[in-house]
Design goal:
Layout: H1 6-16, E1 29-30, E2 46-47, H2 49-56, H3 62-72, H4 78-85, H5 87-104
Antiparallel strand pairs: 1-2
């Protein structure tokens, strides 16, 4: 099995929530009824930025750190961007995290 790069991990997490219908705020993940579930729950159909990334990695690894670094550039956390600034800001956050990861490789 080939190990994925940090950029590939970030890209997969971003793609999962690229459709606003598959993205949520306030919870790591939601089921079809809007109830909170764990990101890896079989009923999960919507994820926040961090919840989506949790499906790709099992710990706060390098990919998560790039997401945090990208958020710090605007002085807040990934969760604050997700829950306070909306879907398009989350997409920009992932794009910036991928840029930072690519620049350091």
């Amino acid at each position: 099995m080939t190990e994925r790069s940090t950029v590939e991990i970030l890209r997969a997490a971003r793609e999962r929530i690229a459709d606003p219908e598959r993205w949520c705020q306030g919870y790591y993940a939601q089921d079809p009824n809007g109830a909170e579930v764990e990101p890896d729950d079989v009923q999960a159909c919507k994820w926040c930025a961090v919840g989506s990334l949790c499906l790709e990695v099992q710990s706060r690894d390098e990919a998560h750190l790039y997401l945090v670094d990208a958020a710090r550039e605007v002085g807040i956390t990934p969760t604050a961007i997700n829950d306070g600034r909306g879907h398009s800001a989350v997409m920009v956050l992932f794009d910036r995290a991928m840029q930072l990861a690519e620049a350091s490789s």
